[in-house]
Amino acid sequence: MVNLFLRAAGLAAAVTAAVGLAAAPASAAAFPALAWPFDAGQQVYSAGVHSDDGGTGVKNAVDFSPADGTARAALAGTVRLQHCAGGDWVTVDHPGGWRTGYYHLEGIQVTDGEHVEAGAVLGSTGNALPCGGSSTGAHVHFTLWTLPDAAAGDWDGVAFARISTTVAAALGEPIDGKTLGGWRLAEGAKQYSGTATHLADGTVVQLPGRFRAIP
Ligand SMILES: [Zn+2]
């Protein structure tokens, strides 16, 4: 527990330092357009946009259950597996100080430090709880993050309860307004809500909902 506390304290210090800068590199650039974290064109159920812990705080999470049950990298980057006593979860770090997170995956097919292209298979959507949390029904709990530096992204051994509250408050990046697979996601007033708007034709899907994620 001491190690966890010191790591968290270091993270908080790093975040404080980053916030002190008027224009940190990560916040100066626009968040890149992402692919869906699954194969486009298939049926997907999304439980909607929510806070990482599903309760309070920045809504940096959205759940997806694609028909084929396969989670894929939403953007090219470097895999950073986060290890806990209960197993691993997948994060991918992207140029510009961005991170995408993929929680609940089973059968993880990538290794720590591996470079992946957008669309690379990460694993199967599932109910895994490597660092805690909860899940009802196989899905990927997809999250967005900013990282002021590499040290801030070391979440080895950090419980989901802390990731989804303290860390999310400092580093969570809202899903609202981000583009995935040519669709713009928006959060709603409530947890697990929002919309997905297909930019090509203006189709709006209310979340939670099931739709075909056509490009
Ligand atoms: Zn979720």
UniProtKB/TrEMBL annotation:
Pfam family, any one? Peptidase_M23
Q: Which UniProt keywords apply?
A: Hydrolase, Metal-binding, Metalloprotease, Protease, Signal, Zinc
At the top level of its lineage, which domain of life is listed?
A: Bacteria
Keyword Signal carried by entry: yes
Domain M23ase beta-sheet core: where?
59-146
Q: Which Gene3D superfamilies match?
A: Glucose Permease (Domain IIA)
Q: Please give the biological process terms from Gene Ontology that the record holds.
A: proteolysis
Stretch forming the signal peptide: 1-28
Query: Could you tell me which InterPro entries the record lists for this protein?
Result: Cell_wall_metabolism_enzyme, Dup_hybrid_motif, M23ase_b-sheet_dom
Has keyword Signal? yes
Which cofactor does this sequence's record say it needs? Zn(2+)
Among CDD domains, the record links this protein to:
M23_peptidase
* GO MF, one example: metalloendopeptidase activity
Q: What is this protein called?
A: LasA protease
